Structure formats: structure tokens, C-alpha cells
Amino acid sequence: MKAVLGRTPSTVSRELARNTTRGHPYRTCTAQTQAAARARQPRRSRKLADPWLWQYVQTQLTQGCSPEQIAGRLRHTYPDDMSKHLSAETIYVGLYVLPRGALRSELLAALRQARKAHQPRARGTDPAARSPI
Q: Of the ranges 29-33, 55-59, 111-115, 124-128, which one carries the lowest mean pLDDT score?
């Protein structure tokens, strides 16, 4: 199988398990549609899936702390526990991935700049080069 497809058997097995409908053969168009739908869904960071850590972030935000302060405080309080270390960007991404609702609007309002949308930094582009003088 590896020689024909150029992929290891485990990769082929995962693809078949993920994109085959029970009782029907594998169809490439259906698999591509399902993969594209999964890619569009926003996902929260694995670290923010930890209930304690997410609750801590929410509490600190409602008390007026910035994501940068929360990240620094976690590093200072738990220097040896890497599972409790977050970056400020991870906190921002976790907030902007939340679905619309009261919790999201409450937490976004707690941010100091309270922007509705987050614009991630563009990689590899020079902002000065984009705007002509």
C-alpha cells in the first residue's frame, strides 16, 4: 500500500476511519467536503480546554487583568508546571474563538481595548512596505 499511495498504512487507516460513512464506500468528494468543514471550525487551544485554567483566565479578566498580566502571573506562580503556562496570544485566541453569547461579550468587554474582532499579526509582511508615502 505504501508503494502505491506513497503514504504509511496508519495515515491511510486514519483517513478511512475519519471520512468513511458507515455502510458506504470511501468517496473522495465527500471526504474533501468533510475535511474542509472541519478546517473552517475554530478550535480552542488544548491548554484552554483545562477547566481550571479557563476558569482562572475568566476570573482574572473580569477582575481587570490584561492577557499579558495573566500569562505573566501564571508563569510566576507556577514556574515548574508547564501545563499552566499560557501566552497572551493563546488567551486572546481563546476569547475570540468563543461563540457569540453573553459570556463572550462579557469577557471581550473586560479587555482593556474591548475590540469586537481580533486581527492576528500577518507573518512575513512589512507594514511599512504596504502603505505608500
A: 124-128
Contacts of 94 (CB under 8 A, 6+ apart): 44, 45, 48, 54, 57
Q: Could you tell me the pTM of the whole model?
A: 0.53
**CA 27 to CA 41: how far, in whole Å?**
22
Q: Which three cell numbers stand for residue 25?
A: 464506500
pLDDT band, residue 47 (cuts 50/70/90): confident
Question: Could you tell me if 120 and 108 are in contact, meaning their C-beta atoms sit under 8 angstroms apart?
Answer: no
HSE-up (13 A, CA, CB side) for residue 80 = 0
